[in-house]
Amino acid sequence: MNVPKIKGTHTAMKSGMLAAETAFNRITDENLQSETAGLYIPEYEEALEKSWIWKELYAVRNIRPSFHNYFGLYGGMLYTGIFYWFLRGKEPWTLKHN
Predict the structure, then answer these.
(1) Distance separating alpha carbons of residues 2 and 50, to the nearest angstrom
(2) Which helix (H) or strand (E) holds 63?
(3) Which of 18, 35, 67, 69 could be bridged to 76 by S-S, CB 3.0 to 4.6 A?
């Protein structure tokens, strides 16, 4: 979910559309054996990485975890103000949830 824009519905619909398209292409492929139709589809991950979802969610990946540190609400607001608004998610690290 894009926390600053509260756009979880848009990204969920787009990722569902990409999943349906890649699954349909996989199922209708004539060279594919029926045994592997339900397994992992690497084309979905590639399609997701090429879409606007990947770029948008990568830019906001550190916003929510920044509020769950020992600085709390004010530390998260400061981090978000500095790194999201000025660098637009280009920091070279990814924060983790506790």
Answers:
(1) 17
(2) helix 63-66
(3) 67
Contacts of 20 (CB under 8 A, 6+ apart): none
Exposure of 62 by Cβ count < 10 A (0-12 exposed, 13-18 middle, 19+ buried)? buried
- Domain regions of the chain by residue span: 1-60, 62-98
Backbone angles phi, psi at 68, to 5 degrees: -105, 50
Handedness of CA 18, 16, 97, 2 (dihedral sign): positive
How far apart, in whole angstroms, are the C-alpha atoms of residue 6 and residue 56?
12
> What whole-number distance in Å separates Cα of residue 94 and Cα of residue 29?
38
pLDDT at 1: 58
Task: Report which DSSP code applies to 51.
Answer: S
DSSP state of 81: I
pLDDT of residue 36: 56
User: How much is the pLDDT for 49?
Assistant: 93
Both structure tokens of 54: 């990947």
